[in-house]
Design goal:
Blueprint (H helix, E strand, L loop, with lengths): L7 E3 L7 E3 L15 H14 L1 E3 L10 H9 L13 E3 L22 H8 L8
Antiparallel strand pairs: 1-2, 3-4
Length: 126
Amino acid sequence: MLTEMGARIHGAGTSHIEIEGVDQLRPADHRAIPDRVEAATLVTAVGLAGGEVFVKGARPEHMDMLLEKLRQMGMPLHCDRRRPLGRRRRNASTSVDVATLPYPGVATDYKPLLVTLLSVADGSRS
């Protein structure tokens, strides 16, 4: 966004970034990425209560590991623009092992959502 506004930034995508000051920035349009934790909250709520949810604008590729864990628990998920992201009938899910990891892994912010969902799952893990 800053580059679009006229900032001079060198090294984007590397471990060393240099920003050269400019006299003035110009207006630019910017769309923030959707909040993956908000989307995850809605999807796990469906896993708990049943039903289905289509999370408009959600980016499943930002939640790959979470969605994989939900699939392992028995929740059917669709990751395209035409069908609901999460769908669940009110039947028991299966327990899974979950460990938080840096992105793109399971975010620590997902942990309360998963613990709640796993509290009603069949089975146990040690």
